[in-house]
Design a protein that fits this description.
Helices cover 3% and strands 61% of the residues. It is mainly β and 328 residues long.
Length: 328
């Protein structure tokens, strides 16, 4: 018979994570940990802290990666999410805005049907409240008072997502292609104060290139029937159209294209320095009447709302899970 020997550099299962991103006038810090073999029982336990601008969010989760001996994962997540949502006028000045506080709990089931087909079923319960905390601009606060804050909301949302294809990670580089689609819905007949339907789809393509290069491309689109301002799509800054204000554009639908070339000038087991060149473009749909304060205009989904190109750097520590520092 044959014998398979696997050698590993590290034997610890407690994996720290850290990410720092700067762009669109906003800084995001993520720190946390996960242990994929808690108590030696192949049980994943994790916690994460996020600071976005002036707000703080906390999450914790537990996950059984191989439930009943099958490629079936079950888990639960809970936490508190805080974020400020601003609505900008055509001159990129904040018109009105509010703080969203969301307390949430969810259960989920992941299924790997084959190496190229994955699915996830999630049921989330959330309570959402709104305030003017952290807005930091008297004029913006006054305009929000004029239109009023959204009402407190209680919501139960099932969601289903599918992914075809697979993205493989080679240390800090990625290779492969995938297409994913998701649906999220709520009905006011069951717990939720307001019903809505949201669909999204993303196509991703990664390719390994010579000289430790990596091509990363992504195209996504989505649509929602929700009219509450906190459930709209947002583009701008950080992970979407870089070079613009964070979440500068809002609407009930969107499309987004990103292409990025990454090449490493420093590459060793302890630190990687990647230089990046990117192109971003996106369009945003209509702003519902309920979310449209005086001074704001609507958009055309099919038009090009924003585009940018630029360069940046990524600092990666391969031995620490998700240790990435990004500046664009």
């Amino acid at each position: 018979g044959s014998r398979l020997v696997v050698e590993v550099d590290e034997r610890w299962t407690l994996l720290p994570m850290f990410q720092l991103s700067q762009g669109g006038g906003t800084r995001r810090i993520i720190a946390g940990f996960s242990d994929i073999n808690m108590f030696g029982r192949y049980l994943e336990l994790g916690a994460k802290y996020q600071r976005l601008g002036e707000t703080n969010s906390f999450y914790g989760w537990v996950r059984k990666p191989q439930f009943l001996g099958y490629r079936l994962a079950v888990g639960a997540l809970g936490g508190t999410q805080n974020s400020t949502l601003f609505f900008f006028d055509d001159q990129a000045a904040a018109n009105n805005g509010f703080l969203l506080t969301r307390n949430l709990a969810e259960v989920f089931v992941d299924k790997e049907w084959t190496w190229w087909l994955y699915s996830q079923l999630t049921l989330r319960y959330g309570r959402e409240s709104f305030s003017l905390q952290y807005i930091g601009d008297d004029d913006v606060e006054d305009r929000q008072r004029d239109v009023g804050l959204p009402e407190k909301q209680e919501i139960l949302t099932p969601s289903l997502s599918l992914q075809l294809g697979r993205i493989d990670e080679h240390n800090y580089r990625f290779d492969g292609k995938s297409i994913s689609a998701s649906w999220t819905g709520a009905t006011d007949a069951v717990v939720s104060d307001k019903g809505f339907q949201t669909v999204q789809s993303t196509v991703s393509y990664y390719e390994l290139l010579p000289w430790k290069g990596n091509l990363a491309t992504q195209f996504g689109a989505g649509y929602t029937t929700a009219d509450s301002p906190n459930r709209l799509f947002f583009l701008g800054g950080l992970d979407s159209v870089r070079g613009f204000q964070y979440n500068q554009f809002a609407g009930d639908s969107y499309w987004l294209f990103n292409a990025e070339y990454r090449i490493a000038s420093i590459d060793n087991p302890y630190v990687v320095l990647q230089h990046t060149a990117f192109v971003d473009a996106g369009g945003i749909g209509a702003l519902p009447e309920e979310a449209r304060a005086p001074g704001l205009s609507s958009n055309n989904f099919w038009g090009l709302k924003a585009a940018s190109t630029g360069v940046g750097v990524r600092l990666i520590v391969p031995k620490v899970r998700t240790f990435i520092v990004r500046f664009y």
